[in-house]
């Protein structure tokens, strides 16, 4: 089945492998009991390659720590989605894309919530097989879409999503793989089907992260897999603002996204030439 997955979709298996490794740590930031089965042998092989370039044998790490970033990002978005889902005003959760995420199964959700997972057919088919004996804790709906297509919203509406009701969207591990025009097309599509007050969260990188020598070993691995990083921005707040969202952007290691695990300095954003990852969250105006 994994042979059917595209290059970018294989990164979902990497994320699952990272979550399985994090769940095995005594100081884990979360527990994902489904991650190992979702990662499979392919995910473990991908993780091994990432570890090789992140933690070279000479011990001199220059590449940002993918395991620590993934742990921080997952915990940050776990907390965000739980907060907005339980606020009593957000009955719809949308993951775009779903990848190998298991939040529908491992987290508690309020009664009456609808949880939509959007992704390519090969991903959802593989995931269904791996999760065949697992029971989601929410009204869970898998929706086959191509998020770069012009009409990707139609299958979501057909699955029962109501654009007149508040929703919470998570775009995790996707935007830096897309060309800029696809990033803006996707955000415009989301804005078109979200009610005012709805929530959005995403991760982005800055333009320096696409070119700096420090990130090159890791980016070369992704490029070798056929999924190079394409999009970065120094102003994620402005990018989301253009599409009707007011957001805040924090970096791993900031007080709001640290959890005692971020291993590197976090220079102020006024310092130029620094590779950055942004964890963004906000609302539809």
Element string (H = helix, E = strand): HHHEHEHEHEHEHHEE
**Approximately what portion of the residues adopt beta-strand conformation?**
5-15%
Mean pLDDT: 95
Please give the count of helices. Answer: 9
Largest sheet: 7 strands, mixed
Gross morphology is globular
Q: Give the % helix.
A: 25-40%
Oligomer: single chain
Strands ordered across the widest β-sheet? 3-2-1-4-5-7-6
Number of strands: 7
Report low-confidence residues grouped into runs of 5 or more: none
N→C terminal distance:
41 Å
The class by helix and strand makeup works out as alpha/beta
Radius of gyration (CA) equals 18 Å
Topology of helices and strands:
Elements: H1 7-23, H2 35-54, H3 66-85, E1 92-95, H4 103-106, E2 114-119, H5 121-130, E3 139-144, H6 153-158, E4 167-171, H7 180-192, E5 199-205, H8 216-224, H9 236-241, E6 245-250, E7 277-284
Parallel strand pairs: 1-2, 1-4, 2-3, 4-5
Antiparallel strand pairs: 5-7, 6-7
Helix pairs in contact: 1-2, 1-3
Describe this protein's structure.
This protein is α/β, with parallel strands linked by helices and 285 residues long. It is 37% helix and 15% strand. The chain contains nine helices and seven strands. It has helices at residues 7-23, 35-54, 66-85, 103-106, 121-130, 153-158, 180-192, 216-224, 236-241; strands at 92-95, 114-119, 139-144, 167-171, 199-205, 245-250, 277-284. The protein has a seven-stranded mixed sheet. Helix 7 links the parallel strand 4 (167-171) and strand 5 (199-205). Helix 1 (7-23) packs across helix 2 (35-54) and helix 1 crosses helix 3 (66-85). The termini are far apart.
